TrEMBL record:
Listed InterPro entries: Papain-like_cys_pep_sf
Keywords: Signal
UniProt lineage: Bacteria, Pseudomonadati, Pseudomonadota, Gammaproteobacteria, Legionellales
Protein name: Peptidase C1A papain C-terminal domain-containing protein
Record carries keyword Signal: yes
Signal peptide residue numbers: 1-22
């Protein structure tokens, strides 16, 4: 479980509503950035043969995000404002009396942690993980088949001069959810028994550790033969659009309140966030906070992150799922500063 302090909500972008393929003027996905994560040694040892040494780290890929000049300037200005707020303290709980409880946790309904491996496919994994959690108790949706359909659509839209990210190197929630809403999903049993791909080649397993292997494009016709319309029973809506998140149109107080209300109502929230992985922050992907004695377990905005935001150096992005909140959770930053209030996150 990861935690995120409210401070970093300045960098959040929630699920967006448009299911048409339109570029987000403020945000462009432009490949991936290599990153490293620290492994839970107890979990790592379970998957290794007796007598072998479990690795302490794992290589992953984050999205490489290009912000417009307007978005970069807004982010820099927000970093300045956040520094001023820190002088007075930044409240996670509502300033006025609220009907919301001080904490609420949904968890993931017994869905196992998913693994995007060496690919920058975090949006696909976060969105499908949230769908899995609605069903509960199983890893149901095939990310591989969805991504291979994305590769086909990327090629088809390119013929029309339209950019459409396949999802292998990242995407936006609006595109991934829109694709699932239009084409449905292939379940994991079908993937493992029949495979996904085209007439020349099919894959039955996700290429976990091979960043160069993105399967083969799977046409919408081939996909339709194996898919099911899962979104007919699932409703989703926007809390904050990708473009509004990096503009004065964003009202983060309302966003925080709406996230909490969603959790209380039983709805998980999928979001995308910028991560500062510059310099020493690359070793923990910017998560320098300590919660209940566990270091590098939480994201909080530090002086280093504020400096990099003002210098327009933050380029990495990642998508995750908000599964709960706690107004009274206390996070200690690497500078010793206390932050009160946090969202609990599932990293795929």
């Amino acid at each position: 479980m990861k935690l995120q302090s409210v401070s970093s909500l300045l960098f959040l972008s929630m699920c967006v509503s448009s299911v048409t393929i339109a570029a987000a003027p403020n945000i462009k996905i432009a490949g991936t950035i290599p990153a490293t994560v620290q492994l839970n040694q107890n979990l790592a040892k379970r998957s290794l043969a007796a007598g072998t040494v479990s690795p302490s780290t794992k290589l992953i890929s984050l999205e490489k995000v290009e912000l417009s000049s307007e978005a970069q300037t807004y982010l820099a200005n927000q970093a300045d404002k956040l520094a001023q707020k820190d002088e007075k303290g930044f409240l996670f709980a509502a300033a006025a009396p609220s009907s919301l409880p001080p904490s609420a946790f949904l968890g993931m309904n017994n869905v196992p942690v998913l693994d995007q491996g060496a690919h920058g496919a975090c949006v696909t994994f976060a969105d499908t993980g949230a769908i899995d959690a609605i069903r509960g108790n199983t890893d149901y949706v095939s990310q591989l088949c969805n991504l291979e359909l994305g590769s086909y659509l990327e090629e088809e839209y390119a013929k029309k001069g339209v950019e459409y990210p396949s999802g292998w190197e990242g995407s936006l929630n609006e595109i991934v959810l829109g694709q699932i809403q239009k084409y449905g999903v292939v379940n994991m049993t079908v993937q493992r028994n029949q495979g996904c791909g085209n007439k020349e080649k099919v894959l039955k397993e996700y290429p976990l550790n091979d960043a160069a292997n993105t399967g083969v494009p799977m046409s919408d016709t081939d996909f339709a033969r194996k898919s099911e319309p899962i979104m007919k029973d699932i409703y989703w809506k926007v809390l904050l659009s990708a473009n509004d998140a990096f503009s004065s149109r964003a009202n983060m107080d309302n966003v925080v309140k709406n996230i909490k209300q969603s959790i209380v109502n039983g709805h998980r929230v999928v979001f995308g966030t910028l991560l500062d992985v510059n310099d020493e922050l690359k070793y923990n992907n910017g998560a320098t906070g300590t919660y209940r004695g566990t270091s590098n377990d939480s994201w909080v905005v530090t002086a280093k992150i504020q400096k990099d935001a003002k210098a327009k150096k933050i380029r990495a992005g990642h998508a995750m799922i908000i599964t709960g909140y706690d107004d009274n959770a206390e996070i200690t930053g690497s500078d010793g500063k206390k932050h009160t209030g946090a969202f609990t996150l599932r990293n795929s």
